[in-house]
Specification:
Radius of gyration: 17 Å
Structural class: alpha/beta
Largest sheet: 7 strands, parallel
Number of helices: 8
Distance between the termini: 33 Å
Order of helices and strands: EHEHEHEHEHEHHHE
Length: about 250
């Protein structure tokens, strides 16, 4: 049983790995034995040092996903140095809040580009190399409760997270014959930079906590078991699904 989540010999790329959920996901995979490529818009020295202290390799990849990237070119040296990626975690994401009738076009474009378009294009590039190498690759997308709900004042975020659920299912259908699984995790209300404004608003924070059966905000480490389950070679018959990690919110 201890071998079920053994990721020794695997390379995992985690986007948005510098802080928050991405950092926790990268550390979790490293603790299970994976070597990590961490993608972030700025330096990743802290998470890189922590992963190396665990005895794992770490390669930083500095990239601003708000700008459309040529992922074939960007990832070529990474693929050469690692020998090929085995696991991709599309975690990078941002949120912009504004009333619907005054929602800025640039906030729509930036959020959709990072949260959905970059995730799709990154997955497409890495799936090609996984298929060429004939490996049982794992693609894990970080979705949201707003993959199912509309939310308030977050039109672009909601659209992008609905899209993540859709492309998770679409990619799963096409990549299954190659032995590549594509699944998603839907975090609930987590203690991250994206929820800082909500947590600092006493009324909204109280309303949210009253709705969560577990009675607390989630912590990034709460995603550990879900990502290990979906990243493992033992989950090969699970694809196109989403696992909520929300303290019971979606059951309320």
């Amino acid at each position: 049983m201890s071998d079920l989540f053994d990721l020794n010999g695997k390379w995992a790329l985690v986007t948005g790995a510098r802080t928050g959920l991405g950092r926790a996901l990268a550390l979790t995979l490293a603790e299970a034995g994976a070597d990590i490529v961490g993608l972030g818009s700025t330096e990743l020295d802290d998470v890189g040092d922590t992963i190396r202290q665990k005895g794992r390799k770490f390669l930083p990849l500095i990239c601003d996903l708000t700008t459309r990237q040529d992922f074939e070119t960007l990832l070529y040296p990474v693929q050469q140095e690692t020998g090929g990626l085995d696991i991709l975690v599309n975690n990078a994401g941002i949120i912009r809040r504004n009333d619907l009738m005054s929602f800025p076009d640039e906030d729509w474009d930036e959020v959709v580009e990072i949260n959905m378009t970059a995730a799709f294009r990154m997955s497409r590039t890495i799936a090609r190399t996984m298929a060429e190498r004939q490996i049982k690759g794992r693609i894990i997308n970080v979705a949201s409760l707003l993959s199912f709900q509309g939310g308030i004042r977050v039109a672009s975020y909601t659209a992008s997270k609905h899209g993540i659920l859709g492309i998770t299912r679409a990619m799963a259908n096409e990549l299954a014959p190659h032995g590549i699984t594509v699944n998603a995790i839907a975090p609930g209300y987590m203690e991250t930079d994206n929820t800082e404004a909500l947590r600092n608003d006493p009324d909204r924070s109280r309303q949210i906590l009253e709705r969560i059966p577990a009675g607390r905000w989630g912590e990034p480490e709460d995603l550990a078991t879900a990502v290990l389950f979906l990243a493992s070679q033992s989950s090969g018959y699970i694809t196109g699904t989403m696992i909520p990690v929300d303290g019971g919110w979606s059951a309320r």
